[in-house]
């Protein structure tokens, strides 16, 4: 209830000093993980998704490592590379991991999960694999990478070559992520100390957990293979009362949304309803404390039903494109008609140079101007977003770290969240 927001510029005097601070203050370098806690670092390279987890016993996991290679983008459409373009994103992510791994630079990644096979989720693997040892890789395609949607082409060749090199050098094991089970990603060091920790696999390859045992159901119609985004891996991570959802680029609104300012989408034919993956996932996920928005908070996601069931206290979008978290998505996230109560919204990338002009061009002034205002009024809109859950899972804080250089300094801290 009593969330204390500390921000760098101007507001320091407004914070309550009488309350005991459990969080670190603005300006300090964020400390490493402490035993029993859970850290989730949403690392911002401007190139897509990468989330580094340190579990209570020091087991580590990375979900995705994006690098948008050669896809052509309109000018100002994409966020700039961060901290800068002197290293590829997979290398920045590796250096971040080496800083916050409980074992430091020598630490290996126990699990790397690739939500699905798009560059903004897997493109950084070759550079990552050069710097960090990986024990287990979980993806949706192993062993043959054919079903239900084949993974082929240049991107696939880079991916397989990097995995092959890791396997040869470090004995990495690759597994197919299995929806419905809760024992595929587990604590590897001291599991008996933390029985309140669990990862429930929710979805992969269009299959969704039913909530009963390990049973799954294929969401797609028999005559249609789900597309790459709909094949995304989803999971719910639990520490005591704390719950976190991650679902790659899963769609929730088939075909995006109709808007007069989006003629491309308007022109599309009506889409079958089964392409909505969020709604059937909602009931088996239940309420969460922190929601990582699907598809970077894209236009085809975050439907009202999904939000009304998950009711996130904190939402995070790992954005990299101008129209990620578009007006309709932000309106739903802010709407107390969809679900009541306070909520905070974070994005990894805010108003880069040229984004305003791009948004006006995209949506028209009437829609874009209030939207730009709303985007600037979210809780925090630029940096690495770190969720630090206290041992036991009852409380957590959200840190925003400087992403303009490798300072790992705290730009803002939002403290005092109580898990539900
Ligand atoms: Zn993506």
Description:
- Helix 1 (89-100) packs across helix 3, helix 3 runs parallel beside helix 4 (154-170) and helix 9 (355-363) crosses helix 10.
- It contains 10 helices and 18 strands.
- 21% of the residues lie in helices and 21% in strands.
- It has a single domain (4-418), classed as Metallo-beta-lactamase, Chain A (4-Layer Sandwich).
- It is an alpha/beta fold.
- The strands form 2 sheets. It has a 10-stranded mixed sheet with strand order 1-18-17-16-2-3-4-5-6-7. Strands 10-9-8-11-12-13-14-15 form an 8-stranded mixed sheet, covered by helices on one side.
- Bound molecules: zinc ion.
- Zinc ion binds at residues 48, 118, 120-121, 249, 296.
* CATH class call: Alpha Beta
* Helix-strand makeup class: alpha/beta
Could you name the CATH topology? Metallo-beta-lactamase, Chain A
Mean pLDDT: 92
How many individual helices?
10
What's the helical proportion of residues? 10-25%
Oligomeric state of this protein: single chain
Detail the poorly predicted runs. Answer: 8-21
